[in-house]
Design brief:
Number of helices: 8
Order of helices and strands: EHEHHEEEEEEEHEHEEEEEEHEHH
Number of strands: 17
CATH topology of the largest domain: FAD/NAD(P)-binding domain
Strand content: 25-35%
CATH superfamily of the largest domain: FAD/NAD(P)-binding domain
Number of domains: 2
CATH architecture of the largest domain: 3-Layer(bba) Sandwich
């Protein structure tokens, strides 16, 4: 069984930053991801432009360059590949961590590769940097498991001349609605609230609101999806039940961390916020030897931690691990 000083679950920007900081301290890290390197960014919309500037996405003291003021998805993917190469990080892509056993300084991880092979690895310390983008918040309505229901918006072309319902009214929903409208889809937006979220970016909000005002994009506010069927969608609106002709439903209702995985492995959550209980100085969880990095530290408050601040967790954790292991050597 291969053994490492530190096993990192998740190879997103935060996981990579943890790997770099651990390696820079002379320790041996290994990273696992059920998908590719920075898998969540890969699944972002194809033409996505980040809301932040390049320097705020940088890790490992490697500059990030961009053709424009704000980088796009493709530039970010290229950058993080370059960082992984530069530091020669040992990243096991397409290898899902099923679970782990043992205790501090003597953990065993169980994994499953994309081709169905099971493996075990030893690690003295663990870092969970699994993000939140893998588990969508479900609508919990009949028909949600139909193939026409999509939780990740990628690009508009396949939906040209189709009847599309978008559930939600935050940034991702507004961007998808505009993108689909401009590409020739017939777009209807459905949201429980009274209007477009106040948190939608200032250059997007008036655009989507003007499309709704002109009738180019239909909107049902104070409404929810009651049932999804193969060729239509049933809404529960303030005026009563409405049935819409429909080809595709985009459930842009957000995502959440894998709380079940943490709870199953002895990491307790605050009942009110679902925030894991951690030492604020080291980010070590109540399970000794297991550290948490990135957005999973925020529980359900996923808007508190982004790449911009989650990338600094690696240094905090690596310093704590180095100090802890030094007492053993």
């Amino acid at each position: 069984m291969e053994r490492f000083d530190v096993a990192i679950v998740g190879a997103g920007p935060t996981g990579l930053a943890c790997g770099i900081e651990v390696k820079n301290r002379g320790l041996s890290p290994v990273l696992f991801d059920k998908g590719c390197v920075v898998n969540s960014i890969y699944h972002y919309p194809t033409n996505l432009v980040f809301f932040t500037t390049p320097e705020l996405l940088e890790i490992g003291d490697i500059p990030m360059t961009s053709l424009n003021e704000k980088p796009g998805r493709t530039e970010a993917l290229k950058y993080y590949r370059r960082v992984a190469d530069h530091y020669r990080l040992n990243v096991h892509q397409y290898e899902r961590v099923l679970g782990f056993d043992g205790s501090d300084r003597n953990f065993t991880l169980r994994t499953l590769t994309a081709d169905g092979e099971h493996h075990c690895y030893g690690a003295r310390k663990l870092i969970l940097a699994t993000g939140y983008y893998d588990i969508p918040n479900r609508l919990n309505v009949p028909g949600e498991d139909l193939d026409k229901v999509i939780h990740y918006y990628r690009e508009p072309h396949p939906y040209y001349n189709q009847d599309v319902v978008i559930v939600g009214a935050k940034n991702s929903a507004a961007i998808a609605a505009l993108d689909l409208f401009w590409t020739g889809a017939r777009v209807t937006l459905v949201h429980r609230g009274a209007g477009i979220s106040h948190n939608v970016k200032y250059w997007i909000k008036p655009n989507i609101e003007n499309r709704i005002k002109s009738g180019e994009v239909k909107a049902y506010f104070r409404s929810s999806v009651k049932e999804i069927r193969q060729h239509d969608v049933v809404l529960d609106t303030a005026e009563g039940e409405v049935t819409l002709k429909n080809d595709f439903v985009f459930a842009m209702t957000g995502y959440r961390p894998d709380f079940e995985f943490m709870a199953d492995h002895g990491i307790h959550l605050d009942p009110a916020t679902s925030k894991p209980i951690t030492d604020p100085q080291t980010l070590e969880s109540e399970r000794e030897g297991v550290y948490l990095a990135g957005v999973i530290v925020a529980g359900t408050h996923t808007n508190e931690i982004f790449i911009e601040n989650g990338r600094f967790h690696g240094k905090v954790i690596a310093e704590a691990i180095q100090k802890s292991l030094r007492t053993d050597d």
